[in-house]
Amino acid sequence: MSLALALSLSGATPPMALRASLELDFLKQAFSMNRQSKNFADIITFSRPSAATRVNPLGLIETVAANVPCIDHSPVNLATGTGAQTLALAKDRTYAITAVGGTVAVAGAGVNVSQMGAASGVIQTPAGSGTVDVTFTPGGSVTALHVREVLGLSVWEQRTNLLLKSNDFSFVVGFWNNCPGNISVVLDALQQSGLSLQAVARTSNASSYIGGPTLAATAGTTFTASIYAKAKSTGNYYALRIIGGYPRRVDAVINLLTGAIAYSGNTNFTGLTAASIPMGNGLYRLIVSGVCQTSENINVQHGPLDASIISGAWEGSSAVMSDAYVGACQLEVGAFASPYIPTTTSQVTRAADGPPSETLTPWFKPEKGTVIWTGDVSATPAGIWPGLFQFDDASVANRFGCYVDANRYVTFAKRLSYAPVEVMTTNQFVAGQRFKVAVSWDATNMYISLNGGPVSTVAHGGLPAVSRLVHGKYDNMINGREAGFKYLPKSTVGTALQALSV
Question: Residue 238: helix, strand or coil by DSSP?
């Protein structure tokens, strides 16, 4: 399934051609067509047959119902306490502001507060690079102040959490095992970020871990495991492992005081990656990926440890009775971690984000145009091009649009009766970080610029006739967030195009 915003294009020339005739701002939830404001549902018919999770404006990982789009937020709260404060916020960003139990006044040079109410709303910092000082002045009985960046519309491929009881590590046969019997688990020990974390502790210095049920794996399959963890009182390290027949495995160990990966290693696996994502207030998501080389049963293991045995995960005698708060464990097929999928006694599949086609009123000029796309892409599999957007005739034979490759370049490509013409950026984006690409076309050429980089140009030899616009997928989903899309019915070249991609 794909995420698609399918829009009919008419070729009629809109008035005031120098202005955007289609603008989709997923950060502020502001949408316009031919300079008239629209609601999300007026422009986009969104579908996702299953529930999904997102980080909401309060930093909570919450479940969103089927067919409801996920507007994602940063898990990190930039506010420091509940008093008056001035924060240096990145420019050209949108932030969700919430004052729990009271009100908050917001002020800053060039900061747009038009969508900010007395207690909550969104603000837009001025364009440009660098930061701008924004002052927050709470009023009333504020118990929590949240300042979180809005990331955009989540666009993820279908994934399945292969683990059962993903947030209940009770020792029940067929689910989680106490190996070799030296671990204690207290359920619902800490509520944080919308998760009910468990207190996990060693009861012996001996080698100890929690082991999940075995799953059949095929050689050459890439798996990714993840778990949320926070330091408790002792040890301050946590290990996560995907393992087949010993010693075939991949390991990742996190320092829960700093969030740094303290150790990663693999034996008879390939493609090892290990990472941690800060979730705020000392909570991290620990992630490890690898490609199994043998068709066999595998499982996930995890447990607390201390600095004395980092390189062996939990193998060996621990110097202290290590402990941690943990929860929300996931194992999925793929080279990166997708948003958390809760499970109980059976595996759960989150469907891909993908709406059907939808007809729109005229806004497109086929002979020339400029598109500005903003968002982030988490991972770019080799040989499978995620599409940021494309114009097509509902076939793969005739289309043109923007695609990303495994090396994080962006290509502006066209197909006319399958015949290709492509032009690539000379610079790269950073996986998981916001980037902006601007492309343009006229009667003879195609142009592209990424993040203010040099403009690359190619003669296109004629563009195909197209009938719709599709966002978020070509061969693969972007697996990230789309922050905004803007179409101007005019060509833009040279430094003017560069400026649009900054």
Answer: strand
Query: Is 159-350 in the same CATH topology as 6-47+354-500?
Result: yes
In terms of CATH architecture, what is 6-47+354-500?
A: Sandwich (2.60)
| Three-state secondary structure readout of 351-401 | CCCCCCEECCCCCCCCCCEEEEEEEEECCCCCCCCEEEEEEECCCCCCEEE
Q: What's the rounded Cα separation, in Å, for the pair 81 and 161?
A: 36
CA 62 to CA 194: how far, in whole Å? 6
What is the residue type of 191?
A: Q
Q: What is the pLDDT along the chain (502 residues), one digit of tens a residue?
A: 344 444 434 443 333 335 899 999 999 999 998 889 988 888 887 889 999 999 999 999 999 999 999 999 999 999 999 999 999 999 999 999 999 999 999 999 999 999 999 999 999 999 998 999 999 999 999 999 999 999 999 999 999 999 999 999 999 888 999 988 899 999 999 999 999 999 999 998 888 899 999 999 999 999 999 999 999 999 999 999 999 999 999 999 999 999 999 999 999 999 999 999 999 999 999 999 999 999 999 999 999 998 888 776 666 677 788 999 999 999 999 999 999 999 999 999 999 987 544 545 578 888 899 999 999 998 766 666 789 998 988 888 999 999 998 899 999 999 999 999 999 999 999 999 999 999 999 999 999 999 999 999 999 999 999 988 888 877 778 899 999 999 999 999 999 999 999 9
Cβ atoms within 10 A of the Cβ of 202, count?
A: 24
CA angle 180, 183, 186 (to 5 degrees): 145
CA distance 382 to 271: 13
CB contact at 8 A, 94 and 30? no
Give residue for tokens 């290709």. 420
Domain ranges (residues) in the chain? 6-47+354-500, 56-153, 159-350
User: Which of 246, 248, 230 has its CA nearest to residue 304?
Assistant: 230
Residue 317, phi then psi, degrees to nearest 5: -85, 125
- Is residue 316 classed exposed, middle or buried when 0-12, 13-18 and 19+ CB atoms within 10 A define those classes? middle
Please tell me the distance from the alpha carbon of residue 112 to that of residue 125, in angstroms, as a whole number.
6
CATH annotation of 159-350: 2.60.120.260
Q: Which of 454, 451, 456, 457 is nearest to 500 (CA)?
A: 451
Contact indicator for 300, 217 with CB cutoff of 8 Å = no
Spell out a b/e string for 77-87, using b for 16 or more CB atoms within 10 Å of the CB, else e. Answer: bbbeebeebeb
